[in-house]
Amino acid sequence: MIAPAVILSHPQMGENVGAAARAMKNFGLSELILIAPKFEWPNDRAQILASGAADILKSAKLYPTAAEALAPFNLVLATTARDRDILKEIHTPEAAARRLRVSSQAGAHTAILFGGERAGLDNNEMSLCDAVITIPTAEFSSLNLGQAVLLLGYEWLKSADTTAPVRTRSTIAVPATRTELTGLFEHLERELEAAQYFFPPAKRETMVRNIRAMIMRSGLSDQEARTIRGMIVALVRNKYRGQK
Amino acid sequence: MIAPAVILSHPQMGENVGAAARAMKNFGLSELILIAPKFEWPNDRAQILASGAADILKSAKLYPTAAEALAPFNLVLATTARDRDILKEIHTPEAAARRLRVSSQAGAHTAILFGGERAGLDNNEMSLCDAVITIPTAEFSSLNLGQAVLLLGYEWLKSADTTAPVRTRSTIAVPATRTELTGLFEHLERELEAAQYFFPPAKRETMVRNIRAMIMRSGLSDQEARTIRGMIVALVRNKYRGQK
Fold first, then answer.
1. A:B CB pairs within 8 Å
2. Which of A32, A107, B171, B175 has the most CB atoms around it within 10 Å of its CB?
3. What is the pTM of this model?
């Protein structure tokens, strides 16, 4: 599977190409294509901003026109900020990433096309694209080129990312056995009983249930359950000492 | 509902605070808090990079310590690049945005905490946070502060965004009626029949089905269906003219 190429049409500032290359590297994209950049190439400002992604700049290809740059691609999605008067499907970045991944996996050579900083994409460039991507924003919608590449790259990586939405570090997070937890509960309740904490007695059952729920909610490891038991022992010892 | 605050701990470069403010504005966040910035405040570089988000910088609050900055918050999620040896839940940005939104909607005052450019968050700061956010990246994982704020802001906005994953502009995209489509199909098939296009005749049905599928796939509007019929008329006329 070939990851999508990033094609920057008529970029005006080398900095933005550098930032785009760096964002590509962050999210596993490597093929960079420039259409008629408005500056000398190679470009010093691009080099500085690309820090760590020099290889992407080095292998970047240049073409004078969109027709030549887009020629070998099977699927091209174009990013646009403003609405265009052309009847094409508009994708969210997430939907675009899914479509690009499905096509790439089927063997297609895919690309994401970004317009220049000021003018965006012209109608001829748009006509060569299969569909459009618009990044959702608040009223303040101006994203720079590097940011747009970053967000699309992020969605590309996410479209294959299998990280659990919420996880704990498995190396240190061995969840406690029920034995350990029951030991903790009974230890705590025994000491609370001895301290005449459960009052009135009729509420004991509810109080125990609430305390257990509070403890369970923190998802203790074996070690942490033992730590709490140690604290109980210490607190009780201190209390008896105080009463002497 | 109050949107999450963005808290930057010990930022080193004014530029990054400016970029963060701009990213916040893009995605509907407005409360910026700085913990002991390592530069003069207000800051010229921040102003320049914030272009359009000067109001966020202007209302930013400064605190000398994390304890003071975090004091009023009910839920604080901390971004970290590297794994930490502390047993806290790790969220993807998407899961974090959902959690922040659910809490905010329930009336909680929430925040996202970002560490300084070089050192990240210290253990004391981490201990004041409910959970951790890690942004998924390729092997090249260094995101700058502005980029991290951008991605979290983007997920915050997305968590309430109801934009259809794929849509067409409703103002110009009135999908064709079945009458219009049937008219087009029959017109085209009649002319193809007259031109003896369907060969061998036994394959006619399959050929018609494939042509209709190809046309349906482009999701024509009424106007586009009529445009195609106009093209058929023109092509047929031309053919007869050529045969004279």
1. 116
2. A32
3. 0.87
